[in-house]
Specification:
This protein has 215 residues and is an alpha/beta fold. It has one domain: Rossmann fold (3-Layer(aba) Sandwich). It is built from 5 helices and 9 strands; from the N terminus they run ααββαββαβββαββ. A hairpin with a 4-residue loop joins β6 and β7. α1 packs parallel to α3. The longest helix has 15 residues. The mean pLDDT is 96.
Length: 215
């Protein structure tokens, strides 16, 4: 069975071609304004577009399990004039001592981790490498979004290449499940909300769940 890392290695170049700006730009800009500066970790950084709102006043660190994605991140950071420290690593085993970072972001990464215990471990591992009182901004896909109604919480989501279609594993979170798992991993929930582009009164149907947590 093909792993998510292998799939992202396959799609890295085409991903770079269509994802040139942060998908959650407004939310990330809010975090940059809130935090002002410091040592920032981006878990699952892919090609690095989510670093853009933090290009001033932050020391940028990114990791991803896909080396092909990191190759695109080098390409992207050179194009944008960013200096980013990049590492190939697994979110379950972050290669840093405890209390290393001031802040962290992770956009659309933790829903790719298979297994409830593994997801809890990854959230706890992120908490370990942050300083006391530090915050992290995380996003995952929401199980309540209409296109997944009456479907499994475990999904294989397609990505079309020129000659084939490959599939990425997703675990779709509910708001309640995500809250429970983060608290179990030791986090304080500061706020939990849909993406800013979602304007309907019931947050349960948003595409993304965004959460700001504090150690």
């Amino acid at each position: 069975m093909t792993t998510n890392r292998e799939v992202f290695d396959q799609i890295a170049e085409s991903w770079y071609g269509v994802r040139h700006w942060p998908l959650l730009k407004k939310e990330l800009e809010e975090m940059a304004e809130r935090w002002q500066g410091g040592k920032l970790l981006n878990v699952g950084c892919a090609h690095g577009a989510d670093f853009l709102p933090f290009s001033r006043s932050f020391e940028l660190w990114g990791l991803d399990s896909s080396r092909a994605m990191l190759k695109q991140a080098l390409r992207y950071s050179a194009k944008q004039g960013l200096y980013v420290n990049l590492m190939a690593a697994d979110a379950l085993f972050l290669p840093f001592p405890q209390h290393t970072f001031d802040w962290a972001i992770s956009v659309a990464t933790y829903h790719h981790i298979e297994g409830g215990q593994e997801r809890e471990r990854a959230f706890a591992e992120l908490r370990r490498v942050l300083k006391p009182g530090s915050e992290a901004f995380l996003t995952v896909w929401n199980y309540g979004q209409p296109r997944f109604w009456l479907k499994s919480q475990e999904q294989q989501v397609p990505w079309k290449l020129k000659e084939e279609t490959v599939y990425r594993y997703y675990h779709l979170f509910s708001y309640g499940e995500l809250r429970k798992l983060l608290i179990k991993a030791g986090w304080e929930i500061v706020s939990m909300f849909p993406e800013r582009s979602y304007h309907f009164p019931m947050r349960n149907f948003s595409r993304n769940i965004c959460v700001l947590v504090r150690k």
